[in-house]
Amino acid sequence: MTRAPLVVKIGGSLTDPSGLLDDIAALDSPLIVVHGAHRFLDDLAVRLGTPPRFVTSVAGATSRYTDDAAMDQFLMAYCGHANKRIVEQLLWRGAAPVGLAAMDGGMVRGRRRADLRVREDGRTLVLHGDHTGSIEQVDTTLLHTLLQGGFLPVLCPPALGHDGTAINVDGDRLAAEVAIAVGAERLVIASDTAGFLADAADPSSTVDRACAADLAGLAGSAQGRARVKLTAVGRALAGGVGAVGLCDGRGSHPLQAALAGAGSWFTPSAVVAV
Questions:
Q1: Rounded Cα gap, residues 34 and 191, in angstroms
Q2: Which domains does the chain have, with CATH numbers?
Q3: In this model, does residue 21 exceed pLDDT 50?
Q4: What is the DSSP letter of 5?
Q5: CA-to-CA separations, 17 to 9, 76, 79, 177, 203, in angstroms, rounded
Q6: Gap between the Cα atoms of 196 and 192, Å rounded
Q7: Count of CB atoms within 10 A of residue 246's CB?
């Protein structure tokens, strides 16, 4: 394999990614798919009688508290349901997908943060037994082996903690780290919005083009997942990815539209073309 692969993140917010999967299956170039499943995980947790618990760290970051029971549900939702449904649909479209968790083969490893200091009801608490973590290393051996064999890797969290346990890592950050590790020229993060909104309350405020120097200013207006996505964008650009798109994954041929320039595209400098 001589061409650098494209990395596409299928957001867990997408309720119908069929158009995106059509484009992925039809793409005639090396490709790695990363996907989320947070909506299904939330629904599963509620159906099992253990609604998800979200906590806010002392630094102000919000995350899912992933104890042992929540990690069992995480594995069911991400590695079981979501991953295999995507594999199923891509196979039906004629692709050759291989569904994997990021921890398979020791591909993606990181540090588990077992103890969390959080703020609840004005108090600081320490929660133990968490399986949330951060990515520190990506081994591309298995990915390159699959790509060279003509297969389409389909990855999802969790990664593998250095203590040997599964860790919940952010899907957008996973896509960024994989894109850096494989030398991707472009990373597309597809979700249920048209791109990055300068005003979260105004769907027409999509930022078309921006560079790395603009990220700090844009982060000031970002809320929730949008802020997390900007962090992933910044990490990917700093790691050598040539362009990162926050794009709409809905409708027909959304990947074609994204690769033609639709959505919000971020580059290292203002003079680099998408």
A1: 12
A2: 6-267 (3.40.1160.10)
A3: yes
A4: P
A5: 11, 20, 17, 23, 20
A6: 11
A7: 30
Residues contacting 273, CB < 8 A, separation 6+: 267
196: tokens are 């990055």
Give me the chain's average pLDDT, please: 92
Q: Which of 162, 35, 186, 31 is nearest to 108 (CA)?
A: 162
pLDDT per residue as tens digits for the range 115-135: 888 888 888 989 898 999 999
Closest CA to 249 of 20, 29, 8: 20
pLDDT digits over 138-184, tens only? 999 999 999 999 999 999 999 999 999 999 999 999 999 999 999 99
Q: What distance in Å separates the CA atoms of residue 161 and residue 159, rounded to the nearest whole number?
A: 7
Distance between CA atoms of residues 11 and 254, nearest Å: 13
Average the pLDDT over each of 3-17, 136-150, 210-224, 230-244 and give the range with the smallest value.
Answer: 210-224
Region 220-237: mean pLDDT is: 86
- Tally of CB atoms within 10 A around 140: 15
